[in-house]
């Protein structure tokens, strides 16, 4: 492990501090440092997010929605509106005798004055369908003087990730300066030459120069698609660095000892005998695997994937009993209070009859109760503690933590897992870790995202589950559904109505607004849910209707969910916040609005909320016609299969891993250039080189990790 991955060193070009660049004062250096940019090398790897093609002017007549272009035209009309909020619309015409509307939501009076009828404007943006033909919302633009005819760009312009307080032009200038100090190939190159030759990939130096400043004759289409050999080369190295970093973490962790739970498993046998059902073959197989792991004095790091309803909880409980029988404590952590409560109920019902003391610690536990819970954890009175993030807080100390179980892994980051694990680090021993997720991840992705974990799968459902009947209906048939809900609830069943939002394309103020945009978005989803809630209350006056959305206070959300769970609500109108793990077996009908907008895995998760009891359940996917080809395939896949693994593979194929494995979800550092779906074919290469480097050239592996992950790798020091 490099002692200080981010140390600077003026003698080494890679580690030269940015303050040596012209124009970088203390303030700029600080802004850059806030984004992890400390050295020249950090700037070399600060790659363009995309490119803008200003090498040509596009005629307005031929513009395609969604395709960014540069356009030049003359202002034909200007209109200011205030209907919902201030807006400025500028109609631009060109020689192709077509009109494009430029639309602004944020603007100054001086801007309005600039756009006189007859003024010439050159702008760059992405046309989208608007009320009257195509529109560009917040394009970048400049007004041209009467005689002014600026030349066209000679190369693609790199667009870098925005950094607060550092303008785009400054960023481009700094990166250009940093690149002037790129060392020669031999100093820079870390990948085996044979690999590069074999795959026809350029050296790192050449790849960086091309990626930052594509030469005029570069393959523009490939660059825009991210498949240019220069980009592939960078992707390969980045994926390799991530892979190595995770493998390293695992190796480092497994140098520690863990408690070996070698007792015969009498408690687990007693639980099994007491269960009203027999384990499925898959549950048994995974449990046997856990027994083997837990008997060894090496920390277990195992991910158990199992489709919704496959019965992961009981397997976790059996594993917990192995730890308890050997005198160790167990922590079970879930991402929400509701899920944690559900686990608490199961664990109490299963373990307390065996004399095991099960406790509870969540954010809500406060004051004296919290002090007591912490004391009982610290002195070992509690053998199993169930809870939320609160378990990881400072001040929670276990007497003898031997096993950490984390449910719904993708909601927690790697670092959070490490934090809980650290609670057990005493006398050099670390606890075993069991991670459970209901989001099956295709094998190639699992090997990359979870290279630090062993993976096993509960790939079989308990017998007797009737598969959820899934139908796709056009939204025009919404009224029929009202009757269907009435019918189901009259029979004593419950139903979910899930609201999602149709994207409002007009409403994207470009890059700058994206952070604010997500807040606005969740507000809009909440409003849509509120509207649907009111409409359903009016249409179904005899039913008790509840509402849950992301804008509600956590306590109100939980209150509504709990009432639904207790049967005090018949119909729950919700946004996708209900997605994870909630178990209401009496719910037998789910309606999902705008289903064509959701990814397959997400729809599958939602659908998993019904079909958990004995009743025949259905899921109705409402869509807005016309359906795109991909949306049609997605809905068809859901109708055809209930198998989460099949669905995950298909999702990856149709949509890419972004939604399966976001940064937020896995806690993996975001990739700078790699895209796991696009670049999946490189993964076997990555694994091959990774093995070789770890065994034969660990120092090179260190340098790769330092280069690409730097500060983040500090978390690896276990
Ligand atoms: P998930 O894997 O989605 O977390 P759960 O652990 O919540 O699933 O299990 C879903 C339901 O199935 C629970 O009510 C559980 O008690 C039950 N269950 C688990 N294993 C079996 C089995 N082998 N046979 C029958 N029912 C089972
Ligand atoms: Mg579960």
From TrEMBL:
Keyword vocabulary terms for this entry: ATP-binding, DNA damage, DNA recombination, DNA repair, DNA-binding, Helicase, Hydrolase, Isomerase, Nucleotide-binding
NCBIfam families per the UniProt record, alphabetical: PRK10917.1-1, PRK10917.1-3, PRK10917.1-4, PRK10917.2-2, recG
SMART domains noted in UniProt: DEXDc, HELICc
Source organism: Luteimonas salinilitoris
EC number: 5.6.2.4
Family stated for the protein in its record: Belongs to the helicase family. RecG subfamily.
Cleavable signal peptide: none
Catalyzed chemical reaction(s): ATP + H2O = ADP + phosphate + H(+); Couples ATP hydrolysis with the unwinding of duplex DNA by translocating in the 3'-5' direction
Function statement: Plays a critical role in recombination and DNA repair. Helps process Holliday junction intermediates to mature products by catalyzing branch migration. Has replication fork regression activity, unwinds stalled or blocked replication forks to make a HJ that can be resolved. Has a DNA unwinding activity characteristic of a DNA helicase with 3'-5' polarity.
Lineage: Bacteria, Pseudomonadati, Pseudomonadota, Gammaproteobacteria, Lysobacterales
Gene from which this protein is expressed: recG
First-tier enzyme category under EC: isomerase
Highest rank taxon of the organism: Bacteria
UniProt protein name: ATP-dependent DNA helicase RecG
GO molecular function, one term: DNA helicase activity
């Amino acid at each position: 492990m490099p002692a200080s991955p981010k140390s600077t060193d003026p003698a080494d070009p890679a580690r030269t501090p940015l303050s040596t660049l012209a124009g970088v004062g203390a303030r700029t250096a600080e802004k850059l440092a806030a984004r992890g940019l400390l050295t020249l090398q950090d700037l070399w790897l600060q790659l363009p997010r995309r490119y803008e093609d200003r090498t040509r002017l596009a005629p307005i007549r031929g513009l395609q929605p969604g395709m960014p272009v540069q356009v030049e035209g003359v202002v034909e009309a200007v209109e200011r509106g205030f209907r919902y909020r201030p807006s400025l619309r500028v109609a631009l015409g060109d020689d192709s005798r077509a009109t494009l509307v430029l639309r602004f939501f944020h603007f100054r009076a001086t801007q309005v004055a600039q756009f006189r009828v007859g003024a010439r404007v050159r702008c760059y943006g992405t046309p989208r369908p608007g009320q009257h033909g195509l529109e560009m919302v917040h394009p970048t633009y400049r007004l041209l003087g009467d005689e002014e005819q600026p030349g066209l760009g000679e190369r693609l312009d790199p667009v870098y990730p925005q950094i607060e307080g550092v303008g785009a032009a400054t960023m481009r200038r700094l990166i250009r300066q940093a690149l002037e100090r790129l060392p020669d190939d031999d100093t820079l190159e870390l990948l085996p030459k044979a690999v590069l030759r074999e795959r026809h990939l350029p050296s790192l130096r050449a790849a960086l120069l091309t990626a930052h400043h594509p030469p005029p004759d570069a393959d523009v289409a490939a660059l825009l698609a991210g498949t240019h050999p220069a980009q592939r080369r960078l992707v390969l190295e980045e994926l390799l660095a991530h892979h190595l970093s995770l493998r390293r973490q695992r190796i480092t962790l497994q140098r520690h000892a863990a408690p070996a739970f070698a007792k015969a498993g009498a408690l687990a046998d007693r639980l099994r005998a007491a269960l009203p059902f027999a384990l499925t073959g898959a549950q048994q197989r995974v449990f046997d695997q856990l027994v083997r792991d837990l008997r060894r004095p090496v920390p277990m790091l195992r991910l158990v994937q199992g489709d919704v309803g496959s019965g992961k909880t009981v397997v976790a409980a059996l594993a917990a009993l192995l730890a308890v029988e050997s005198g160790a404590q167990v922590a079970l952590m879930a991402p929400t209070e509701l899920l944690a409560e559900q686990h608490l109920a199961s664990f109490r019902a299963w373990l307390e009859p065996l004399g095991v003391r099960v406790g509870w610690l969540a954010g809500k536990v406060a004051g004296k109760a919290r002090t007591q819970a912490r004391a009982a954890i610290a002195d070992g009175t509690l053998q199993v503690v169930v809870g939320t993030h609160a378990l990881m807080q400072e001040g929670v100390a276990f007497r003898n933590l031997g096993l950490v179980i984390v449910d719904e892994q993708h909601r927690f980051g790697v670092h959070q897992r490490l934090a809980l694990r650290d609670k057990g680090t005493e006398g050099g021993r670390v606890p075993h870790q069991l991670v459970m997720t209901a989001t099956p991840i295709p094998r190639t992705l699992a090997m990359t995202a979870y290279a630090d974990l062993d993976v096993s799968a509960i790939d079989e459902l308990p017998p007797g589950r009737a598969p959820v009947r899934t139908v796709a209906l056009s939204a025009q048939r919404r009224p029929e559904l009202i009757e269907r809900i009435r019918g189901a609830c009259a029979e004593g069943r419950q139903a979910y109505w899930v609201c999602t939002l149709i994207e409002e394309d007009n409403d994207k103020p470009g890059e700058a607004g994206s952070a604010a945009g997500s807040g606005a978005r969740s507000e809009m989803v909440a409003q849509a849910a509120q509207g649907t809630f009111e409409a359903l209350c009016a249409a179904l006056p005899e039913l008790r209707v509840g509402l849950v959305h992301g804008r509600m206070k956590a306590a109100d959300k939980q209150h509504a969910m709990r009432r639904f769970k207790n049967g005090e609500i018949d119909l729950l109108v919700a946004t996708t916040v209900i997605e994870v793990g909630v178990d209401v077996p009496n719910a037998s009908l789910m309606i999902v609005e705008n289903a064509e907008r959701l990814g397959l895995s997400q729809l599958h998760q939602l659908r998993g909320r019904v079909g958990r009891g004995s009743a025949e359940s259905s899921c109705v996917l409402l869509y807005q016609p016309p359906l795109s080809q991909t949306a049609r395939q997605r809905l068809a896949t859901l109708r055809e299969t209930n198998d989460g693994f099949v669905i995950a593979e298909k999702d990856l194929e149709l949509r890419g891993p972004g939604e399966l494995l976001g940064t937020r979800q896995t806690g993996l550092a975001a990739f700078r250039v790699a895209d796991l779906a696009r670049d999946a074919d490189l993964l076997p290469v990555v694994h091959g080189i990774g093995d070789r480097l770890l065994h034969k050239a660990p120092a090179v592996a260190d340098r790769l990790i330092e280069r690409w992950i730097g500060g983040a790798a500090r978390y690896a020091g276990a």
